[in-house]
Amino acid sequence: MAVAAKILRSELDQKAWNAVCDVPDPEVPVLTIEDLGVLRDVHVQADGSVQVTITPTYTGCPAMSMFAFDIEAALLNAGFDKVEVKTVLNPAWTTDWLSEKAREKLRAYGIAPPNGKASRRALFGEEQVHCPKCNSANTSRISEFGSTACKALYRCNDCSEPFDYFKCI
Amino acid sequence: MKDPALFTYCMRLADDSAILSQRLSEWCGHASHLEEDIALTNVALDLIGHARELYTYAGQIEGKGRDEDALCFHRVEREFTNLLLVEQPNDDFAYAIMRQFLFSAFMHPFWEAMMKSEDELLAGLAAKAEKEAAYHLRHSAEWVIRLGDGTEESHNRVSDALEFLWMYTGEMFECDEVVSSLVAKGIAVDPMSIKHLWDETVNTVLVRANLERPTESWMQTGGRKGEHSEHLGHILSPMQYLQRSFPQAQW
Predict the structure, then answer these.
(1) In a domain, B219, yes or no
(2) Chain B residues touching residue A94 (CB < 8 angstroms)
(3) Contact predicate A75/A129, CB 8 Å
(4) Residue A23, Cβ neighbours under 10 Å: how many?
(5) What residues have CB less than 8 Å from B124, skipping those under 6 apart?
(6) How many CB atoms sit inside 10 A of residue B83's CB?
(7) What are the residue boundaries of the MIP18 family-like domain, all occurrences included (chain A) (predicted)?
(8) Is residue B192 part of a domain?
(9) For residues A105-115, b (16+ Cβ closer than 10 Å) or e, as one string?
(10) Where are the alpha helices (DSSP H) in A28-163?
């Protein structure tokens, strides 16, 4: 019985996960909360309520309340009417959690994906960022901070395209 | 209250972040160019994030039901315990950049050290804040160099900013009973343990910026005890206006 209950619960968890995993990032709509790694855990409790755990990309990320709202709506649509969205900071989100698929989606959308491993950089370390349009490495940084907390502004010196770079953290 | 020292410590850090964030937000729509406008408000946003976590945590430690908004918007000037450095006005872009640089050069190693804190929330927040502070430091340091090594005008302005703000840097390294009792428990960061890192960053950047490090002299202090410059009241009045006029207002 205990085993059956466990399987049942995990199926329910999976159903709830499936209901929320496609919630898009309001600022980078090609990415879902699953792609981003913002969605950490979905658990259906004994009383039928769902506890969803998310983590912010940046501590001040204004999209967090939007995520919570969209998650509740998605679960309501899937028949779960009691939802609690919990935000955790630990472990700290890192761009290393972005899947290869997510990086490809970003590139296709015109945003240069973050470089490799989030490594410790020197104070003035320069990153080599490739243009998402023409793939040239001959790019220059316009600003360390872009339209959202997670992006920086770059320009391609070959094709002249200005673009966002998803910062490596 | 189960841990008054931890409450005080978190409130100090929260106030530093909240007040500097408010100062930076004053640049919104006024910065030298669009990219810089966005950059300064992005830094402000990160700092709001830190302040929110810290106020919320402090409210839980206090256990009197005060939430982040109550702690940020329903306290008076003398109850704020931020560093005097962060409340200094935006007289000039060079002042804002120098203030940010002197603060971030401290906060980056501070959060890095805090990652090893015995306090789970502070360690978790530190792991995020450290990455953000690295960007704040890089951004402000690049500007200090660009201004210091720029025209005669920009050099003079950033040099004045350094001379003026220097007397507020000593306060970052003060270690009173609140800090030392938490350092002994492995919770707080001993500010003197990161002094050499701050010195190293400041010296490296000032050399590259053709700026002279001011000689060590008398340091202004008092922020941690609620003794502020006249500027704090002028920050709080627009910042708290709405919550004071319409307490508990939500939208």
Answers:
(1) no
(2) 131
(3) no
(4) 24
(5) A88, A89, A90, A92
(6) 24
(7) 15-85
(8) yes
(9) bbbeeebbbbb
(10) 33-36, 63-77, 100-109
In this structure, chain B runs to a length of 251
Among A89, A91, A153, the residue with its CB nearest the CB of B125 is A89
pLDDT score recorded for residue A5: 46
Q: What is the DSSP string of chain A?
A: -HHHHHHHHHHHHHHHHHHHTTPBPSSSTTSBHHHHT-EEEEEE-TTS-EEEEE--SSTT-THHHHHHHHHHHHHHHTT---EEEEE--SSPP-GGGS-HHHHHHHHHHTEEPPPSS-----TTPPP----TTT--S-EEEEES--SSTTEEEEEETTT--EEEEE---
What token pair was written down for A165? 């770079």
pTM over 0.80: yes
Q: Which domains does chain A have, with CATH numbers?
A: 2-87 (3.30.300.130), 95-166 (no CATH)
Domain range for B155 is 4-212+224-245
Whether the ω angle into residue A91 lies within 30 degrees of 0, i.e. cis, is yes
Cβ atoms < 10 Å from Cβ of A92: 22
Is A8 a residue whose pLDDT tops 70? no
Residue B251 in domain? no
Question: For residue B86, how many other CB atoms are within 10 A of its CB?
Answer: 26
- Residue B164, chain A, CB below 8 Å: the answer is no
Mutate to test the interface with B, among A64, A123, A148, A168 (most CBs of B within 10 A): A123
Q: Could you give the maximum distance between any two Cα atoms of chain A, in Å?
A: 65
- How would you classify the pairing of strands A139-143 and A151-156? antiparallel
Does residue B13 lie in a domain region? Answer: yes
- Distance separating alpha carbons of residues A22 and A27, to the nearest angstrom: 14
Bridge-based pairing state of the strands A111-112 and A139-143 = unpaired
Question: What number of CA atoms fall less than 13 Å from residue B159's CA on the CB side?
Answer: 14
B224 vs A: CB within 8 A: no
Region B56-64: mean pLDDT is 97
The one-letter code for the residue type at B86 is V
Q: What is the pLDDT of residues A56-91, one digit of tens each?
A: 988 888 888 899 999 999 999 999 999 999 999 988
Is the pLDDT at A4 greater than 70, yes or no? no
Can you give the C-alpha Rg of chain B in angstroms? 18
Counted domains in chain B:
1
Cβ-defined contact of A123 to B137 (cutoff 8 Å): yes
Q: How many CB atoms lie within 10 A of CB B173?
A: 15
Tokens representing A69? 């709202």
Contact A145 B35 (CB under 8 A): yes
Residue type, B90: N
